[in-house]
Design brief:
The structure holds two protein chains of two kinds.
Chain A: H1 6-16, H2 25-33, H3 38-59, H4 65-73, H5 75-107, H6 120-129, H7 134-158, H8 174-184, H9 191-196, H10 208-234, H11 244-247, H12 255-258, H13 262-291, H14 298-315, H15 320-330, H16 334-346
Chain B: H1 8-18, E1 24-30, E2 36-42, H2 48-60, H3 68-74, E3 80-83, H4 86-94, E4 99-102, E5 108-111, H5 141-151, E6 157-164, E7 170-177, H6 183-195, H7 205-211, E8 223-225, H8 228-237, E9 240-244, E10 250-253, H9 271-300, H10 308-318, H11 325-345, H12 348-369, H13 374-387, H14 394-410, H15 413-429, E11 431-432, E12 435-436
Antiparallel strand pairs in B: 1-2, 2-4, 3-5, 4-5, 6-7, 7-9, 8-10, 9-10, 11-12
Helix pairs in contact in B: 1-4, 5-8, 9-13, 9-14, 11-12, 11-13, 11-14, 14-15
The chains are: A mainly alpha, B alpha+beta.
Chain lengths: 358, 479
């Protein structure tokens, strides 16, 4: 398979990345910032857009991250950094997994199903993890139109029920609310770190330094529009609407006659979400394999890592909310560390290999 | 290597020893001057009338030398080849071409007076067109090659024939357009064809296992057609075509999934109509695969998916059904598959009766008796019709429908989502001869989308599909 193309990368940033922000994030933002939920989201988007610009600058060398690390620190230290990075990806993967599990249980079933219904996800994830990073490009090509259609469909169904005056008075949450909202929502923003795993695997084209962040911000604008509609529809009770995109269109007037036609769009967005949820695991698998110099079959790494995650999902089945609280409210600082500082540090890495001394 | 010696009796015996079968016959005759000849031929596949007219009769009055050139000049048969190797001569006899031996010459003549059994060129039953050409391929390779040649009268059209099958020695012809088809694809197909080592090649479909990169895949990976117009159009886009003797089904490579949603008729009607029918085909296939699965998932796990009035109707129909929803649907679906299979294999008239009995009597009585509910029958019927909107994909889609049903019955809607995601990931990652099978959707190729689900005007399709990497990009002067 070829390298990831510019278009595929932009599709990922504009159409796939926003899907991960439509499940628990809206309710979390309402919890932290009430009617000012748009501002923390915008702040995180701007922060990530900046980090993506840095990743693009680092990508100009067309070398992969393991190569850059090896050029700078040597083989062993480079591998150590890759192991650290893979652990970050696994850490980042955990939260979307929780989100998806809760979403699936809450939206696709009338009664709480057994954990086993969620287990096939790990089979699919293992399959994706065994694929090279270039597969992400092709899947993004498919996921982008699906995401756009589903997102637009949900907005069309929900906008008539929205009362945007609920967003007033602007600034009511104050600086505290803004900072709390920004910090507590950082766990959803690590797309620049995902992109870091892809450098050297896509062809750098002139202008990507500003085009890529712009695409990400376009996706961000769609998410912010969604948040505005979400708060407009639910207002004060938005706090309790945990699976935002599955609930936003439920007041559509024709539903009583046609049934939950919004489920068509919900299923389509879930399809894209499956891909987005598996991405950190895929990035982590590839990083770990790179740390071990690509020794061993990718299928073995993929199977082992997904088996571990499945075991964790079983073990932590009753403690998911506690894990979510810890990740979003206590350990949120890990996300900007890897997704903002690491891209900046990547700019300092050596592009050319060190000359060996005799 | 045993060769012809020039001793007529021993050469004929040696050839007969190689071909001991009862249908291999010797036809001895001599000229008026007393020069003896023997024609060795296979009974039944040799045209004996032509053998007498073009070979034996002219030689009766022959008075020339024993040299092959002189004998050859005397014969009126247009296809004559000298050959010394007895094994190759035996192969020619088995192919229906008699071998002519005579005293004093260490070389034999292979005469092309094979008897060809052909049915008339007719419209293939699998690919009926309301508008457009109605010719279809038949089982004879030469006729099929002529149908292709008649449509592509260019010296760039190349035919390369291979003999495949240790025992069947089936002729297989590779067709491509020089200067248009990528040489890498041609050489790759050539290499794979040459490497095939099977006993018997009963049909062209056997070849697909050797020519595709994932032979065990459920999803189709080689294009098939019975129509020369479609075959030629695909070759002209930059694909290679494969014709096998004894098979009316031609193969085309590399294959794109989108091909099966296109019909030859789409190019003879307005682009709006073509777009509409393509979208309709996609809708029909999606309904065929997903409708039974979603019905089960909704019934078992999420009743909210069904509108309330419909839900009440369904609840009324299923209240006395003894089977679980998934088992009921599985039963009806299997019944449909059995009916389908039986009506294809049965003699035509019995098959028609069977369809009526199956569809009307069995369905009606089963619903009345309370074994299955009417919504289940309606859904399966709708799904069954939808499946045949894209007949070339039925093998794949019918299995997928069953898989979706099983997943929906066990995991519910989320299972359907996951299986769909897996299919899409798999399609995105599959390539054949360097061409992604899911192009132009993944990778997305803007120009090729003009002839995908949407069909642009003919003047917008001035270039060959980008996905196929044709050497010659332009096929039409723009505008």
């Amino acid at each position: 398979m070829d390298k990831i193309s510019q278009r595929q990368l932009f599709f990922f940033l504009a159409c796939v990345a926003p899907v991960g922000k439509l499940v628990l994030l809206p309710a979390q933002l309402v919890y932290a910032s009430a009617n000012d939920l748009l501002f923390p989201a915008a702040a995180n988007y701007l922060l990530q857009a900046g980090a993506i610009a840095l990743v693009m600058l680092a990508a100009r060398s067309e070398r992969t991250l393991p190569e850059l690390l090896e050029n700078t620190f040597g083989k062993i230290a480079g591998s150590a950094v890759m192991v650290c990075l893979s652990f970050f990806y696994f850490y980042a993967a955990f939260f979307p997994l929780i989100e998806q599990k809760l979403f699936v249980q809450g939206v696709f079933y009338d009664t709480l199903p057994s954990l086993l219904v969620f287990s096939p996800f790990f089979v699919l994830s293992a399959y994706l993890c065994a694929k090279p990073a270039s597969a992400i490009g092709r899947i993004s090509d498919m996921a982008a139109p699906v995401s756009v259609v589903a997102f637009a469909g949900l907005l069309v169904l929900s906008v008539p029920s929205a009362d945007f005056s609920a967003l007033n008075p602007v600034g009511a949450a104050g600086a505290d609310g803004f900072l709390r909202g920004t910090a507590w929502s950082m766990s959803w923003f690590f797309d620049s770190a995902l992109l870091l795993a892809l450098i050297g695997k896509f062809r750098y084209r002139k202008g990507m330094v500003w085009k890529a962040p712009l695409c990400y911000l376009a996706g961000g604008a769609a998410v912010i529009a969604f948040l505005a509609v979400f708060y407009g529809v639910f207002s004060d009770i938005a706090l309790r609407q945990t699976f935002a995109f599955a609930k936003i269109a439920k007041y559509f007037s024709a539903i009583s006659v046609l049934g939950r036609i919004d489920y068509v769009f919900i299923c389509l967005l879930s399809l894209v979400m499956v891909f987005y949820t598996a991405l950190p695991l895929q990035a982590g698998t590839q990083a770990l394999r790179a740390a071990f110099r690509d020794k061993g079959s990718p299928a073995i790494y993929a199977a082992a890592i997904n088996a571990v995650f499945f075991a964790l999902a079983v073990l932590l089945n009753d403690r998911f909310l506690a894990v979510q609280e810890t990740i979003t409210k206590t350990l949120f600082w890990i996300f900007p560390l890897f997704s903002c500082l690491l891209p900046a540090a990547a700019l300092l890495l050596r592009r050319t290999p060190r000359e060996k001394t005799a | 290597m045993n060769s012809v010696t020039g001793n007529l009796t021993s050469d004929a015996e040696a050839l007969k020893k190689l071909l001991p079968a009862q249908d291999i016959l010797l036809f001895p005759f001599e000229t008026e001057a007393g020069m003896p000849f023997i024609a060795v031929y296979a009974d039944g596949i040799t045209d004996k009338e032509l053998l007498g007219e073009q070979i034996a009769r002219p030689l009766r009055s022959y008075r020339g030398s024993v040299r092959a050139d002189d004998v050859r000049r005397r014969l009126t048969c247009p296809e004559l080849r000298p050959q010394k190797d007895l094994a190759l001569l035996a192969a020619e006899v088995l192919a229906g071409n008699p071998v002519l031996l005579w005293e004093g010459m260490d070389e034999a003549l292979v005469t092309g007076v094979k008897k060809v059994f052909t049915r008339a060129v007719a419209e293939p039953p699998t690919d009926v067109a309301v508008k457009g050409p109605r010719e279809g391929f038949i089982e004879d390779l030469k006729t099929n090659m002529s149908l292709v040649r008649r449509r592509l009268k260019t010296p760039d059209l190349r035919f390369e024939t291979f003999t495949i099958g240790r025992r069947s020695a089936t002729s297989v012809t590779l067709c491509f357009l020089e200067g248009i088809t990528p040489p890498s694809v041609v050489s790759d197909v050539r290499k794979r064809l040459a490497a095939i080592d099977v006993d018997v090649l009963p049909d062209s479909s056997y070849l697909t296992h050797f020519l595709v990169s994932r032979p065990r895949s459920l999803l189709k990976q080689a294009g098939t057609t019975e129509k020369p117009d479609i075959f030629c159009a695909k070759i002209a886009e930059g694909r290679v075509g494969i014709l096998a003797d004894g098979s009316p089904v031609a193969l085309t490579l590399p294959y794109l999934v989108v091909e099966d949603f296109q019909s030859s008729e789409d190019y003879f009607v307005s682009p709006h109509r073509a777009t509409f029918t393509r979208v309709l085909r996609l809708f029909a296939v999606l309904v065929a695969i997903y409708l039974p699965a979603f019905y089960i998932a909704a019934q078992l796990f999420k009743l909210q998916l069904i509108p309330i009035r419909l839900l009440l109707t369904i609840a009324g129909s299923i209240q006395n059904i003894p089977l679980s929803p998934s088992l009921e649907m599985l039963l009806v679906l299997l019944l449909l598959e059995v009916l389908n299979e039986a009506s294809i294999r049965m003699p035509k008239y019995v098959g028609m009766a069977l369809s009526v009995v199956g569809a009307l009597v069995l369905g009606e009585t089963a619903a009345r008796a309370g074994f299955v509910s009417t919504p289940a029958i309606i859904i399966v019927a709708f799904s069954g019709i939808g499946l045949y909107a894209v007949p070339n994909l039925t093998e794949t889609t019918s299995v997928l429908r069953l898989a979706m049903l099983l997943v929906a019955g066990s995991v519910g809607t989320y299972g359907i989502v996951l299986l769909t995601a897996f299919l899409l990931f798999y399609l995105a990652a599959t390539e054949n001869y360097g061409v992604p099978v899911f192009a132009p959707f993944s990778p997305m190729i803007g120009r090729d989308l003009r002839d995908s689900l949407v069909k642009y005007n003919l003047s917008s399709l001035s270039r060959r599909p980008v996905a196929l990497n044709s050497r010659n990009k332009r096929r039409m002067k723009h505008g």
